[in-house]
């Protein structure tokens, strides 16, 4: 009987896949996006990409896919946004950095240099590096603004250092207007349901939480708190604009 139930679910998913609108998800790391990806994978199946699948390929390579997601920035995403329901998520900027640090430390250090570096650095050292070390800076220095202003996998090879801070913020504030929905991690389930309804996908029966990073429960030191504020000045401005828009400030 279980086999028949699973077969029925597969047929239903296939039907939903055919009638679902195309989607595009600009997935900023550690903003609860993996939970969305896992839901999408049940319905889009092989007609989608996620995380780093886009690396080394041009946007046009994915034009025929039903669902495109990845850790790319706006310059990459906007080339595919035309006929797609597009969305992204923002998160409390300081919480995102802490989550990123503990996520990186939890990975196998031989996979990427960033994983190895995070294991070698204390939290304070990691935050300091976010102001000076290019490899760390591109992941935590106002990363949400950077991804929505220009971001990774761009066409011109520009890095975050190639822009003035105010220029980055202005671009990010302009670009969020181009998305159908900008969600907030802190109200994830509410935003998730809006997105899934727009994509004609069923809502999960149970709470889905993926890729959660456990963190040290010790309170932050004064220096750590100051570094977090310095690293997120622009991100906080963007985050508050989106929160105010949704009446969640």
Automatic annotation (TrEMBL):
InterPro entries: P-loop_NTPase (IPR027417), Sulfotransferase (IPR005331). The keyword Transferase applies. Gene3D superfamilies: P-loop containing nucleotide triphosphate hydrolases. Pfam families: Sulfotransfer_2 (PF03567). Keywords: Transferase. GO terms for cellular component: membrane. GO terms for molecular function: sulfotransferase activity. This is Sulfotransferase family protein. It comes from Mariprofundus ferrinatatus.
């Amino acid at each position: 009987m279980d086999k028949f139930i699973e077969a029925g679910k597969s047929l239903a998913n296939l039907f939903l896949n055919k009638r679902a609108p195309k989607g595009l998800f600009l997935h900023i790391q550690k903003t609860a996006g993996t939970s969305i990806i896992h839901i999408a994978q049940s319905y889009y199946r092989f007609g989608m990409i996620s995380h780093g699948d886009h690396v080394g390929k041009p946007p046009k390579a994915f034009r025929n896919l039903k669902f495109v997601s990845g850790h790319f920035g706006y310059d990459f995403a906007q080339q595919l946004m035309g006929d797609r329901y597009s969305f992204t998520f923002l998160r409390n900027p300081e919480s995102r950095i802490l989550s990123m640090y503990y996520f990186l430390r939890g990975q196998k250090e031989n996979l990427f240099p960033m994983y190895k570096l995070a294991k070698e650095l204390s939290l304070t050292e990691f935050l300091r590096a976010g102001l000076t070390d290019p490899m760390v800076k591109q992941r935590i220095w106002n990363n949400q603004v950077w991804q929505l202003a220009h971001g990774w996998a761009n066409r011109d090879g520009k890095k975050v250092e190639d822009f003035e801070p105010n220029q980055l913020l202005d671009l990010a504030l302009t670009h969020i207007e181009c998305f159908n929905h900008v969600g907030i991690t802190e109200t994830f389930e509410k935003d998730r349901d809006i997105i899934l309804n727009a994509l004609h996908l069923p809502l999960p029966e149970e709470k889905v939480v993926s890729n959660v990073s456990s963190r040290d429960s010790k309170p932050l030191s004064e220096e750590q708190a100051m570094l977090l504020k310095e690293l997120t000045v622009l991100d906080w401005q963007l985050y508050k604009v989106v929160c105010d828009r949704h009446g969640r400030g």
